[in-house]
Amino acid sequence: MDAPRLAAPVTGALTRFVAGAGLLLRGFALYVRSPGLMLLGIVPALISGALFVAAFATLLYFVDDLAVLVTPFADDWSGTWRGLVRVVAGLAVVGLAGLLGVLTFTAVTLAIGDPFYEKISERVEDRLGGTPGAVDVPFWASLRRSIVDSLRLVAISALVGVPLFAAGFLPVVGQTVVPVVGALVGGWFLALELAGAPFYRRGMRLPDRRSILKADRPTTLGFGVAVFVCFLIPLGAVLVMPAAVAGATLLARRSLGQPVEEG
C-alpha cells in the first residue's frame, strides 16, 4: 500500500532528536509496568547475545591477523609506521564489526523472538487505543517478510559500512568523526528494523516504513542512536531489547500521527 505523506513537525531538529531518545526511556517505563511480558522478550536476546559475544571474542582474538591481512601495503614500512597503521586497521575492523554486529544482532533477535516482540508491540498499541487500519497477517508470512526486510537492511548497512571502514584509516577523522557517523548510520538502520512490527500490523512494508520515518528523521535518529549506544554497553543489547521494541512502537505511532499518550 502507498505510504501516507506526513509533514515533519515544526519544532527544531535538536528538540526532535532529544524527543526521539525519550521514546526509549518511555519504552523502559512500559517495561517496568509489564515485567512478565518484557522478561519473555529477554530470552531471545540472551540466545542471540551468547552467539554474538562468542563471535566478537573470536574476532578480537584474530584482530591482529586481520589487521595484517588488510594492510599488505605496509609490509615493507619501518616497524613504527607499520605498527601504527595496523593498530588503526585493527580499530577500523573492530568498529565495522561493531556496527554490523549491532544491526545483525537486532535482525537475528527479532527473527528468533518474533512472537514475543510482536506481543510486546501489540500490548503497547492496545494501551494507546489500538491499531488503526490493522490487517490480519499470518504468523509465517509476517516472519518471512521480517527476515527478508532485515536482510535487506543489513546488506545496505554493510555497503555503507565499507566506506566508513576505509575512512577509519584517516588520522584523527577516523577516530572522531567516523564513530559519530557510524552511530548515526547504525541508529537509522536500527530504528528501521525495530519499527517493523507496528508497520507490518498496518500492512506496510519496508519502503513505506522508510518513507514515513524519513519525514521526521531527527526523531527517528534520536531514538535509533539512543538504542545503538545502549547496545554497545556489555549486556545492554540483551536488557534493552524489549524496551527498544516498545519504544519503536511509540516511534511508529508518532510518525503516523497517532496518539502516543494513554487516554
C-alpha end-to-end distance = 29 Å
Strand element count: 0
Give the proportion of residues in helices: over 70%
In oligomeric terms, what are we looking at? single chain
Mean pLDDT over all positions = 82
- Contiguous low-pLDDT stretches (5 residues minimum) are none
Biggest beta sheet attributes: none
Structural class: mainly alpha
Strand % is under 5%
Q: Treating each run of at least 4 consecutive H or I residues as one helix, how many helices? A: 10
Helix and strand sequence: HHHHHHHHHH
Cα shape: elongated
Rg is: 20 Å
| Tally of domains | 1
Organism: Micromonospora solifontis
Pfam family, one: EI24
InterPro entries: CysZ-like, CysZ/EI24
Protein name: CysZ protein
Task: Explain what this protein looks like in three dimensions.
The protein has 263 residues and is mainly alpha-helical. The protein has one domain (13-255). Helices cover 78% and strands 0% of the residues. The protein is built from 10 helices and no strands. Helix 2 (35-69) packs across helix 4 (114-127). The longest helix has 35 residues, at 35-69. The radius of gyration is 20 Å and the shape is elongated. The mean pLDDT is 82.
Question: Outline of this structure?
Answer:
This protein has 263 residues and is mainly α.
Question: Which SSEs are present, and which pair or pack?
Answer:
Blueprint: H1 13-33, H2 35-69, H3 79-112, H4 114-127, H5 139-167, H6 173-194, H7 196-200, H8 206-214, H9 217-232, H10 236-255
Distinctive features:
single chain, 263 residues, mainly alpha, 10 helices, 78% helix, transmembrane, CysZ-like, transport, cell inner membrane, amino-acid biosynthesis
